Amino acid sequence: MDEVSDSKTKIKELLSSHIGVEPEDIDEEDFFSEDLHMTPTDLTDFTHLLEKEGFNTTHLDFTELETVGDLIEALSSHEEIK
User: Fold this and answer.
1) Which domain holds residue 65?
2) Domain count for the chain
3) pLDDT for 26-73, tens place per residue?
4) Residues 48/53/54/56 CA torsion (nearest 10 deg)
5) Which residue intervals define the domain Carrier in the entry (predicted)?
6) Exposed, middle or buried by CB within 10 Å (0-12, 13-18, 19+), for 58?
7) Which element (helix H / strand E) includes 30?
8) H or E element: which one contains 27?
9) What is the CATH number of the domain that holds 32?
10) 47 vs 25: CA distance, rounded Å
11) Beta bridge partners of 67
12) pLDDT band at 80 (very low <50, low <70, confident <90, very high)
């Protein structure tokens, strides 16, 4: 597995644990608010969880990130900075 695949898997595992669903039930096309029913508070809490796991989240702006795939791409593109 390459680093992007590892990151994708880790992000989905963390998200699934955070919102209480199975990782295989999360698709990259899922929208945070519409599909996963996450509130702004949920997203903030999830950002803190990502930070604890070593992801660089300083550049994240959830007003621009709508889907799980958007988040994976944003975190993967900044992974070398963490």
Assistant:
1) 3-81
2) 1
3) 999 999 999 999 999 999 999 999 999 999 999 888 888 999 999 999
4) -40
5) 5-79
6) exposed
7) none
8) none
9) 1.10.1200.10
10) 20
11) 31
12) very low
How far is the C-alpha of 15 from the C-alpha of 62, rounded, in Å?
15
Q: How far apart are the first and last CA of the chain?
A: 20
Contacts of 67 by beta carbon, 8 Å cutoff, 6+ apart:
28, 29, 30, 31, 32
Bridge partners for 31 per DSSP: 67
- Cα–Cα distance measured from residue 67 to residue 14, given in angstroms and rounded to the nearest whole number: 15
Q: Tell me the two tokens of residue 15.
A: 């998200």
Please, which residues have CB within 8 angstroms of residue 12's CB and are 6 or more apart in sequence?
23, 26, 68
